[in-house]
Amino acid sequence: MKIKRPVETGQVIVYEITGIAHNGVGVGKYQGFTVFTPYTVPGERIKAEIIQVKKNYAVAKMLDVENGHSQRVNPSCPIFKECGGCQLQHISYETQLALKRQQVVDNLERIGGFKNVLVHPVLGMKEPWRYRNKVQVPIGIQNGRTVAGFYRAGSHEIIEMDQCLIQPEESDQAVRLVKQLADQLGITPYDEKKHQGILRHVMVRTGIHTQEMMIVLVTNGESLPNKKEFIQRLHNSFPQMRSLIQNINTKRTNVILGEKNKLLWGEPVIYDHIGSVRYAISPHSFFQINPVQTEVLYEQVRKYAALTGEEVIIDAYCGIGTIALYLAEGASQVYGVEIVPEAIRDAKVNAEINGYTHVHFEVGAAEKVMPRWLEEGVYPDVVIVDPPRKGCQPELLDAITGMKPKRLIYVSCNPATLARDVKYLQEQGYYLQEVQPVDMFPQTMHVESVALLTLR
Ligand SMILES: C[S@@+](CC[C@H](N)C(=O)[O-])C[C@H]1O[C@@H](n2cnc3c(N)ncnc32)[C@H](O)[C@@H]1O
C-alpha cells in the first residue's frame, strides 16, 4: 500500500524549525511530517525546497528565512558548508550552549525517564575558536595538484583549506609549510584511489601551555625523498617544532596512523600540563583535544569527587591516566583501567613524571577488570567512568554497584548512553544528583557531561 506523505521532491514549503538533531541539522514538522533542513536555527520559520522524501521524514534545502532570527550569525569559516568538521557556526555561541544543554535534558527525559533533573547551564569557552591541540589533515591529489584540507561531509573528497578556525594558527602554518616543502622536494601526495604516492596525512600536536609542537608525517611506506633537506628546511622555518616523526601506514584504511613511528628529529614526545599535572604526549596518545576545557571538565570531576585525602578512587576507561592523575593528590589510593596497552604505558610514565607512587594502572576491558577487583576486595569511595560513545557494559555497572562507592561520577560524550546507563544505576540504588555539561567542542554538536550519582 502506498503511504500518502504531505510532501514530495521539488515542493516548496514554509514551516518552523523547532529543534536540532544530534548531527546539527534543524528539524520541524510540516503537516505533522518530520522535515530536516540543514543550516537552520530553532525558532526560524523558513521557506525550503524538499530534496529527498523517506518513509518517516523528508530532507529540504533552505531557500529563505521568513522571520529574521537574532541567533543566526554569519559563519566565520569560508568553507563551513562544504567541510564536515563544524555543524553550528551559523548559530550564536550562546544559543549553541543552550541547544547542547537541551540535548542533555531531552535525552535524560526520553531515554532515562528523568524529570526535573538539575542540569546546569553548559560551561562554555570565553573564546570558542582555535582550541584544538591536535590537527590531522589529509593530503591528496586533485587534477595533478597537491591538496591539503578536510573531507567533504560524508565523503573522501578533500576540500582545500588554508586555515581552520578551530585549530591554532601555528598548526595551520605548519601544515602549509609541510605541503609546500613536499611539493618542492618531490615528496608525492598520496592518491587514495590508486594507493600510490607518499604523503598521506600531516598531524600536528601542540602543548597549549608549553608551546611545544610535534609534527607527524604519515607516509605510505618508509621512503621519504630528500629527507635531510626536508628536515633541515622545516626546522629552519619552524623553530616551535620540538619533535618531528615519520609514521608509516601502508594499509588501505581510514585509520590515520600506522603502527610504526620513526623519529626524524628532536624528542619522541612533547609535554603539556592540565592544572599542575604534567603529561607526556606521543603520536598515538589519546589526549583530550581541548586543553582549556579539559581543565574545566576535570575541575568539575574534582568538585563532585569531594576528596579529603583518605579516599580510594577508581578511574575506569582512564586513557593515559589523565583524570586519575589529576585527582591523585587528593586520594589515598588510585586505580585506573584502560583497554589500550599503549595508553596504560603512557599512564605509568605520566605517574612517574609526576612522582605518584600510590597509583595502579592496569590494561584490560573495564567490564572484566572491575568485577575481578571487586572479587579481590577493592572497595573504592569514588568511581569515575569516562566511557566511549557506546557507554558502559552492564557487567561494569554491576561491578560498580557491588563495590558500593559513595559517589559515582559519570563523564559522558554521548547523552543518550549516559541516560540509559544512569537509568540502570538508579534502579540499582544510585541517585542522580545533578549534571554539569561542558562544551569541549565549540561550533560542533558534540556535548560532554559530568553527572554526579550518590548511593541512596
Ligand atoms: C572518552 S575516552 C576517556 C579517556 C580519559 N578519561 C581522558 O579524559 O582522556 C574513553 C577511553 O576508553 C577506552 N576504552 C574503550 N573501551 C574500553 C573498555 N571496554 N575497557 C576499558 N577502556 C576502554 C578508550 O581506549 C579510551 O581511552
UniProtKB/TrEMBL annotation:
Pfam families noted in UniProt: TRAM, tRNA_U5-meth_tr
InterPro entries (alphabetical): MeTrfase_TrmA_AS, MeTrfase_TrmA_CS, NA-bd_OB-fold, SAM-dependent_MTases_sf, TRAM_dom, U5_MeTrfase_fam
Record-annotated TRAM domain positions: 6-64
MF (Gene Ontology): 4 iron, 4 sulfur cluster binding; rRNA (uridine-C5-)-methyltransferase activity
Entry keywords, A to Z: 4Fe-4S, Iron, Iron-sulfur, Metal-binding, Methyltransferase, S-adenosyl-L-methionine, Transferase
Binding site for S-adenosyl-L-methionine: 288, 317, 338, 386
Entry-linked CDD domains: AdoMet_MTases
Active site, UniProt feature: 413
Gene Ontology biological process terms from the UniProt entry: rRNA base methylation
Protein family membership: Belongs to the class I-like SAM-binding methyltransferase superfamily. RNA M5U methyltransferase family.
Protein name from the UniProt record: 23S rRNA (Uracil(1939)-C(5))-methyltransferase RlmD
Naturally occurring in which organism (per UniProt): Thermoflavimicrobium daqui
